[in-house]
Amino acid sequence: MILRGITALLLLIFSQNIRAQEILLPEGLSDLSAMSEIDEEEQALPFDLSGFLESRIGLRLQSDALEKQMSLGEMRLQIDIEKELEKLTINFVSDFLYDPVLNDHAVDLEKGQGFVDIRKANITFSPMDFIDVKMGRQVLTWGTGDLIFINDLFSKDWNSFFIGRDDEYLKAPSDAIKTAFFFGDVNLDVIYMPRFDADRFIDGTRISFYDRGLGGLRGRANPVIDDRPDRWFENDELALRLYRSFGAIETAAYYYNGYWKSPAGQDMTTGNAIFPKLQTFGASARGPISKGIGTFEVGYYKSEAGSALNPLIRNDEFRLLVGYEQEIAAELTGSVQYYLERKLSYDDYLASLPVGAILDRQNRHIFTIRLTKLLMQQNLRLGLFNFYSPSDKDGYLRLKASYKIRDNLKIEAGGNIFYGQLDHSFFGQFKDNSNIFTALQYNF
User: Fold this and answer.
1) Could you tell me if residue 68 is left (phi over 0), alpha (psi between -120 and 50 degrees) or otherwise beta?
2) How many CB atoms are closer than 10 A to CB 183?
3) Residues 361, 410 within the same domain
């Protein structure tokens, strides 16, 4: 049924690309050609339509008793519709997909499961000259980090990131009202989410992980059960960004009030994963340094009251990110980052731990490096991104190569390689999920 629908849609798309003027008519039938052009205009869609059709397959590099050998097996159709009216713009983007890796295909728009994933459904308008409003489902982001997020507390899809979907799917959609105020030199973004939007976090359905409560790995047969705050206008979120430029230096201050986006605690009675309350305060700067671009970002995470003395809830944290990017050679760009995650009230944390519990270090350090090379008139793109943590002695290597066969047809291959000495460290717990993938994408 789905295949028939996709085939019909492709036939419709291809038919739109046939131009009447490309058909050579005998002399004297020019009026018929003009009539064809009129008919084509009458049949034109009343909105802008674009999208892509993609096949993407991934396999684990080793056996994982808790997951299927195939990590990914998708057929995906994305439809992007935009309609500009006199005073507002309507945006709608939805993915239709089938993936045999998951046994349950029921639609869950919050978790990103099922054969439909609505990524955008919003309207944009300007009630005043200095105000822009976007209302509805949208993908949100800000901050200066490259695949590391401090003040960007918007939903992420970590399953997509780790199994080899396109990078755009790391950013999950949110149901929000975004209001941008432009005051000249100083501007303000206010984002209100009337109901908490959690990350599409690692819960075992696709990727196995280490569960400290169980003392071992957990997978698809025993996925995480969570108690998610889901009351409209009660379990809400607020995010603010105040930003301005000083010459070539871009600066910003951030505030967030909501909840930890991935589970950061456990209910002592039920054992279910929970999302404790969270406030964050942060700042960032970005600007030219020497031959490249430098970035700096900090954030203070204030967890739920009493978290320092509760071993089941994540502590307050201080986070720091410093980065630098420049062109190393012709068509070769490189960047490096240093990231610090410091657990606050560490003595209280140590005192609260039960006997035999796994001990986290006070400071977690991560270094990243990215290399991007363009070849063959920029049609071939080679990319490498590596996370390495000297404190956890683990890391994560992302490799990707993409080749543009023509403007609307692209082939891609890559891998996600996890490594580490400890089964319970952040990247080390995913060692059995290392995978390779390949994809073919047609854009229209």
Assistant:
1) beta
2) 10
3) yes
- Sheet with 273-274: strands ordered across: 226-227, 273-274, 265-266
3-class SS of residue 92:
strand
Coil/strand/helix, residue 57? strand
Same domain? 159 vs 238: yes
* One domain, residues 25 and 151: no
**How many domains are contained in the chain?**
2
Residue 296, domain extent: 45-443
Q: Which of 46, 124, 154, 54 lies closest to 95 in space, CA to CA?
A: 54
Mean pLDDT per segment of 10 residues, for the chain of length 444 residues? Answer: 41 38 40 45 78 98 94 97 96 96 86 94 97 98 98 98 96 98 97 98 96 92 94 98 98 99 93 96 98 98 88 95 98 98 95 90 98 98 98 98 97 98 96 98 97
Q: Same structural domain for residues 63 and 31?
A: no
The H or E element that residue 131 is part of is: strand 131-139
**Residues 37 and 52 placed together within one structural domain of the fold:** no
Closest by Cα among 198, 141, 138, 199 to 173: 138
